[in-house]
Amino acid sequence: MTLTDIIAAHEKELSASDRRLIEVLVQDPGQSAFLSAAKLGDKVGVHAATVVRLAKKLGFSGFPALQDKLQSALLSEADPARRLQKSLQRIRSGDIIAELAAIERENLALIADQVPQPQVAAAARLLAGARSVYVFAYGHASALGEIALRRLRRFGVVATDLRFQGRELAERVLSLEAGDVVFCFSLRRLAPGLEALLHHATGTGAQSILITDLPRSDELPHADLLLSASRGHSTEYQTLAVPMLILNAIVLTMANEADIKSSQIEKLGELISRFEHAEAD
After folding, report:
1. What's the burial of 120, exposed, middle or buried (CB within 10 Å: 0-12/13-18/19+)?
2. Which GO terms describe its molecular function (predicted)?
3. Predicted local distance difference test score (pLDDT) of residue 39
4. Residue 228 host element (H or E)
5. Model confidence pTM above 0.85
């Protein structure tokens, strides 16, 4: 049942304030789906409690459940072809690289508010102090997982690749225990296996970090440290620039604040030189 159908079924129960809220929800679902009840209420000039009451009138358990419905509708409609087409429509000048850079600047400018430095520093400390780090990523977030693995290993961190599903994922986390950290990336929607992995990490006493573009809500599986930042409108073409910046900030903070010896980097340089010379011979 679509949201439009749900609204129609409860038409007689709606107040004037409800109708103003619904107008915003229907006309701009891309933004409304990611606003808090308080901020959505501010847009219409009503209290957050009115927003929650509307969600319950429509048969939802609360406003987060209504948000889930809106977000699911957006994701089902926003297939890659449509997102690309919508982004191209936004780029009117024909100068794609300049327009794309401007869009990314808008997204990147918001990161410091969404993921402040204390959160970045907390992630850096967790990773630097871990017995072992397990890096989980899925789909196009796998590129972030690969970079995270490489950069952690350069610092001498024991890092395990979890870019797998099902049986193989289960086998690779068999040795997970307290003192370890699960470092996860999940973009656009919850990655398959993520919820089970985070639940397992909690059960073993391991800690967890999740980098995502999904909004903070009770629907997200528990992670000890959640770093959530928008990558722009969910119905438009999105890049990895935002999560990549967060990852780079964590790595640089590790180098700057954590107890990482420069000798480890020097050792890596010596090994690279030795292996490259061996290949040349």
Report:
1. buried
2. carbohydrate derivative binding; DNA binding; DNA-binding transcription factor activity
3. 85
4. strand 225-228
5. no
Distance CA 141, CA 187 (A): 7
Classify the C-alpha dihedral 160-161-162-165 as positive or negative. Answer: negative
**Which secondary-structure segment (H or E) carries 89?**
helix 80-90
How far apart CA 103 and CA 259 sit, in angstroms, is 37
227 neighbors 119 (Cβ within 8 angstroms): yes
Q: Which of 42, 64, 52 is nearest to 18 (CA)?
A: 52
Nearest to 206 by CA among 179, 184, 224: 179
Q: Which two tokens stand for residue 51?
A: 């927003």
**pLDDT for the residue 171:** 94
For residues 201 and 181, give the distance between their C-alpha atoms in angstroms, rounded to a whole number: 8
Maximal C-alpha separation, the chain: 82
Give residue 142's pLDDT band: very low, low, confident or very high (50, 70, 90): very high
Residue intervals of the chain classified under CATH 1.10.10.10 are: 3-77
Give the separation between CA 124 and CA 60, rounded to whole angstroms.
39
How high is the pLDDT of residue 125? 94
CATH class name, domain 3-77:
mainly alpha
108-275: CATH topology = Rossmann fold (3.40.50)
CA dihedral 19, 21, 22, 23 (to 10 degrees): 90
- What are the backbone dihedrals phi and psi of residue 225, each rounded to the nearest 5 degrees, phi first? -135, 115
Residues of the chain with CATH 3.40.50.10490: 108-275
Structural contact between residues 114 and 228, judged by C-beta atoms closer than 8 angstroms: yes
Asked if residue 84 has pLDDT above 50, the reply is: no
Rounded to whole angstroms, how far apart are CA atoms 211 and 192?
A: 15
